[in-house]
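Dear colleague,

Following up on yesterday's call, I've attached the two folding results inline so they're easy to grep. Please treat them as preliminary; we haven't cross-checked anything against experimental data yet. The first protein's sequence and structure tokens come first.
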Amino acid sequence: TVRSCAWHPAGELLATASFDGLVMVWKLERASPEAAHDDFDCIASLEGHENEVKCVRWSTSGSYVATCGRDKTVFVWEADDELYEVASVMHSHTQDVKHVAWHPARDDVLASASYDDTVKLYVSDGDDWRVDATLAGHSSTVWCLAFSSDGAGLVTCADDRSVILWRDESQGGSAAMPRYVRADAAVDVHTRPIFSVSWDHSRGGDGLIATGGGDD
């Protein structure tokens, strides 16, 4: 099963995450005018997870790839041309990690959502990465999260049928690490677990938020 896929921000590259424990990076090869269609070549196989890989995401610049999985880990891979090296492995969650998302304006902030009911925020710390904050507000599995277009907001959804909005109150400018605090919540948005949430970036920081749940 291929659980997740993500385009490189510049296009041409596609990353896929699978239950076989591997992450593949594919490069688009433009076909000649005589060919029926374009093709993709696998240029890298990222090995490190001990079990199912649940999500893969590129950073905004394309310099990093983040992955997470059933082995309770979050990997950060450094992408240099067609070479991919592990920059850090975080073991901060106590259960499966379901989703990862990069801050939209910076490559040094990453978030993850887990079966342990929490969201973790990671920051770059020299040559390594570390947990900077734990967001606890849901009462069951956090399935997905999404940043607003400017990173000032973060929204999470969970098995508890709620959606929580978190706001960055760091007030420290672009150099400061974000500090997300719970700003609002909507309970019983769906009648069954909420598996997906997406923030509309076309409308700016306060754009529309869409959710998808198990209630069809």
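Below is the second protein, in the same order (sequence, then structure):
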Amino acid sequence: ITTVLVGTGSPLALVGPQTSTAVFVNGQFLLFDSGNNALDAMNTLNFPIAELDAVFITHFHNDHYGDLGDVMEWSWIRGRRKILPIYGPTGITQIVEAFQSAYELEESYRTAHHGEELMPPEWAASEPIEFSPPIDDSAIVVYEQDGVTVKAFRVNHAPVEPSVGYRIEYAGKV
């Protein structure tokens, strides 16, 4: 398991990439949050953005999802050939659909300009996977793939509701 703090910047500092963490585990590239400038930071680090397997959003402050639209779009432009799942608590569907709406024209122009072989429209989409966080201190499984499990649990980030944390498990490690 390799974990990279892509961004740790404060929402008020206006410098550096904001909250984003990449986890590389068992051949999977998982991204937790995607704050402002996260995509630039991943590009600087030469991350394989086209190989992104899933994104997990903790809550709906923009310093945790401000670059989500660009991550969705550029992973496709760079070669993602699957629908990208975006996991998050209740409300993630609204955010993902809004980003997809904002990029709808751009995607059609890219495909028209570069052709369907290079920019296949069927892979531009992302799929919101929304869950209700548990109301107690338990965790729920939101992702299981090839021995990797991601569990979500409620966190207190009042007044932001819902807010979750994630626990990644693989091969007896957390």
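For the second protein, one point worth flagging: Residues 77 and 119 are 7 Å apart (CA to CA).

Best wishes,
A.L.
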